[in-house]
Amino acid sequence: MGKLYGKEVDFVATKDGRVLYVQATDEMFASETRGREIAPLKAIRDNHEKIVVVRQGSYDTDIDGIRIVSARDFFL
Fold this sequence. Notes:
By secondary structure, the protein is an alpha/beta fold. It contains two helices and seven strands.
C-alpha cells in the first residue's frame, strides 16, 4: 500500500519498466464505494495501467480508462 498525490493505492507493481496500479475491493455496488476505489487511480497523472480488482459483482469493464476485473479473472 502506498500514497500517491495524497490518495491511497493498494498495490503498485513494477517489472521491466512496466508499472501497474491496483486497487482491490470486495464489491462496488454503492456509488460511494465505486468512487472511493476509483478516485486514487484517477488522481495518478501518468499513463501506466490502472486496475480495480473486485471479488463479487458484475461491473462495466472500463471506467474512465481504469480496467475493472473480477478477482477470479485477475488471478487466473
